[in-house]
Specification:
Layout lengths: L7 E6 L2 E2 L6 H20 L4 E8 L3 H10 L3 H18 L6 E4 L3 H16 L4 E10 L4 E2 L5 E4 L8 E2 L16 E5 L7 E10 L1 H13 L6 H13 L4 E2 L1 E2 L16 E2 L1 H20 L12 E6 L5 H15 L14 E3 L14 H7 L4 H10 L7 E3 L1 H31 L11 H22 L3 H22 L1 H7 L1 H21 L5 H11 L34 H22 L11 H5 L3 E11 L7 E6 L5 E5 L7 H4 L3 E5 L5 E3 L2 E3 L2 E2 L1 E3 L5 E3 L11 E2 L1
Parallel strand pairs: 1-3, 1-14, 2-3, 3-4, 15-16
Antiparallel strand pairs: 5-6, 5-10, 7-8, 7-9, 10-11, 12-13, 17-18, 17-20, 17-26, 18-19, 20-23, 21-22, 24-25
Organism: Spirosoma radiotolerans
Enzyme class: ligase
Catalytic activity: tRNA(Met) + L-methionine + ATP = L-methionyl-tRNA(Met) + AMP + diphosphate
Length: 683
């Protein structure tokens, strides 16, 4: 059951691994919905702490460090700044964006672990874990890859299958291998500290079952894990990189990343509260505080099962009121993949489409993967910008402002007597703030955005049907009333669009010269702009996106796909071994092409005349798709001279031109580095 009338909100967004830049999948998954939610709460006057940062202790960090030949610390230092800047550029309004490498986080995590240890909440066990004999180290769960026993995914990790979402232990994988060396690991004995989730299941089950209002995808996953039965999970790992286990007999061991990472929400709140002169405990230990975790679906088990179990064991913290996890966003018919560069990177987007942060925010919110996977395509991006943002939202505001400049000297005109239509529009306007707000409060961001656009459509329809540009010629007072109403709708749009389109909201407020900071409590009013109020300078809120801009982005993805295909192509296997005598039978020579033409009724063959030093010969070659006849006349080639003649398409071919084939299928002529005499042999 959700907490009613909370006094404050603690809103967290998943800690992203600091091992690379961020893409649209990250933004759509949890950071944009969290920002929309938080901006709405702030606009309604709520006390909110919006917390996030980078996770800097995961195995992906050490994997990245090995790939780049640098230290893990250098990796996280490199990407923390990039990630923070990208979020800032897109208006993600964190109260703090910190990092788990900070001292306050190490201290908080170790204190948390120590308390559970002293309370006897851990089971100390010696277990057999995978060890890489080649690399000489124990393997963390994410260093082990194998086949998922549930769905057959051949790339499941040692802690979870990202295809079916099943939580796993490394020993459950079929045919496991090490990501470090590729070798099959062996099992060795090692001691670790386990959280007994099996004994805690009744409490966890009661907690989950008290939140039937959770999204179906979240609640359903939780029920699936509970039905399978929870198992103890190690909260320590045999690794060098991470937060040291604060026990005397734990050399070479660090805290499990999913033990320390969620504690990051707490340590970062401490850091923020200290900077702001606030009491951090109110945001984590007060029963009147509502805690909400925004995450992607791959982190549901950690935020709905493991972290709550940790907090229950510690005993002094509130539990999450909601965990509105999103599914995944795909890209142009395929899963987003950082390793394959099949992604739209935020920093590149801003370089190539400057000033269009809100367009991307809009499209991602409109296609948000709220209960199932969704898809981003560049054509849809273009259509939503041109047909919705430009043609509806932008068109309405622009007409209202431009007509006011033209007919009213850029001042809000006097509103006269209202028609029944005017009153109906005002009545509808008053309903929109609640419609939009209630949908946001229920984490239905697509629905809320739909209501926002309906308000813009209301304004567009009102202007289209009242036609003030015509009315002004016969009834200027009526035209003034129409424009006053259109401007009041525009002012309301500046308030209710802010959670979704913060940059647009700021531009719109500037155009309307709104110096007073109106918030959600003011939305729905029809007197936000007083009569005689001077407007600011008008400018287009959105610009049409042309086909060439979109085609560039599509081509960029196709280029990435092409490069991936090239990288996955393998060198052909060697053919059966031959003797020197077999090779010596081939008479390979150099010649010059003197004539070349296409063979009628064939799209593959070229008919070539080759000067072989012996009077010349005719050779047919299947290279018509790779070379234009006129381009190869005069080129020296290598040919097999003693191949038995054969008829092709009615012409006799007296040899074979030898070619080299690139891995993308492109053919190249094999010619000597320097010109040699025609008929020269190759040996």
């Amino acid at each position: 059951m959700s907490l009613e009338n909370p006094q404050r909100y603690t809103v967290t967004a998943a800690l992203i691994y600091a091992n690379g830049p961020i893409h649209i999948g990250h933004l759509a998954g949890c950071y944009l919905p969290a920002d929309i939610y938080v901006r709405y709460l702030r606009s309604t006057g709520k006390d909110v702490a919006f917390i996030s940062g980078t996770d800097e202790h995961g195995v992906p960090i050490t994997i990245k460090a090995k790939k780049e030949g640098i230290t893990p610390q250098q990796v996280v230092d490199k990407y923390y700044g990039q990630i923070k800047q990208a979020f800032n550029d897109f208006g993600i309004s964190f109260d703090i964006y910190s990092r788990t490498s900070n001292q306050i986080h190490h201290e908080t995590s170790q204190e948390f672990f120590t308390k559970l240890y002293e309370q006897g909440d851990f089971d100390e066990e010696v277990t057999e874990q995978y060890y890489d004999e080649v690399a000489g180290q124990f393997l963390a769960d994410r260093y082990i890859v194998g086949t998922c026993p549930v769905c057959g995914n051949p790339n499941a990790y040692g802690d979870q299958c990202e295809r079916c979402g099943t939580a796993l232990s490394p020993t459950e994988l079929i045919e496991p291998h090490s990501m470090l060396s590729g070798s099959k690991p062996s099992l060795r004995s090692t001691k670790n500290w386990f959280l007994p989730l099996d004994r805690m299941q009744p409490k966890i089950e009661a907690y989950v079952n008290s939140h039937t209002e959770w999204k179906t995808n979240v609640f359903g996953q939780c029920q699936s894990w509970l039905k399978e039965g929870l198992r103890p999970r190690a909260m320590t790992r045999d690794l060098e990189w991470g937060i040291k286990v604060p026990l005397p007999d734990a050399d070479g061991k660090v805290l499990y990343v999913w033990f320390d990472a969620p504690i990051g929400y707490i340590s970062m709140t401490k850091e923020w509260a200290d900077e702001q002169g606030r009491d951090w405990e109110l945001y984590w230990r007060d029963e009147h505080t509502k805690l909400v975790h925004f995450i992607g679906k791959d982190n549901i088990v950690f935020h709905c099962i493991i972290f709550p179990a940790m907090l229950m064991a510690e005993g002094s913290y509130i539990l999450a009121d909601n965990v509105p996890a999103n599914e995944f966003m795909n890209l142009e018919g395929d899963k987003i993949s950082t390793s394959r560069n099949w992604a739209v990177w935020l920093h590149e987007y801003l370089d190539e489409l400057p000033g269009k942060q809100d367009v991307l925010r809009y499209v991602l919110a409109a296609n948000a993967p709220e209960t199932k996977d969704s898809e981003f395509t560049w054509k849809d991006f273009q259509a939503r910008n041109n047909n919705e943002l430009v043609a509806v939202f932008g068109n309405f505001v622009n007409r209202a402002v431009v007509l006011t400049q033209k007919f009213c000297d850029n001042h809000v005109p006097v509103r006269g007597a209202l028609t029944e239509y005017d009153k109906t529009v005002f009545n509808e306007l008053a309903l929109f703030p609640d419609r939009i707000g209630q949908a946001i409060a229920q984490y239905k961001f697509r629905e809320a955005l739909g209501h926002l656009m309906d308000l813009a459509r209301l304004g567009n329809k009102y202007l289209a049907e009242t036609e003030p540009w015509k009315v002004v010629k016969t009834d200027p007072l009526r035209a003034n009333t129409i424009l006053n109403i259109a401007l009041q709708i525009s002012a309301n749009l500046s308030i209710v669009c802010e959670p979704f389109l913060p940059f647009t909201s700021e531009k719109l407020r500037s155009q309307l010269n709104l110096t007073e900071h109106f918030n959600w409590t003011n939305a729905g009013r029809v007197d936000l702009l007083t009569e005689g109020h001077s407007l600011g300078k008008g400018e287009l809120l959105f610009a049409k996106i042309e086909d060439d801009e979109i085609n560039k982005q599509i081509q960029k993805l196709l280029n990435a796909k092409h490069m991936n295909e090239l990288e996955t192509k393998t060198v052909p296997a060697l053919r059966d071994e031959i003797t020197y005598d077999d090779f010596a039978k081939m008479d390979i020579r150099i010649g010059t092409i003197t004539e070349a033409e296409r063979v009628p009724k064939s799209d593959k063959l070229l008919k070539l005349r080759v000067d072989d030093g012996l009077g010349g010969r005719q050779i047919l070659s299947g290279i018509a798709k790779h070379f234009a006849p006129e381009d190869i006349i005069g080129k020296q080639v290598t040919f097999l001279a003693n191949l038995a003649p054969r008829k092709m398409m009615g012409f006799e071919s007296q040899g074979m031109i030898l070619m080299a084939e690139d891995r993308d299928g492109k053919l190249a002529l094999i010619a000597p580095g320097e010109a040699v005499w025609n008929g020269g042999t190759v040996s």
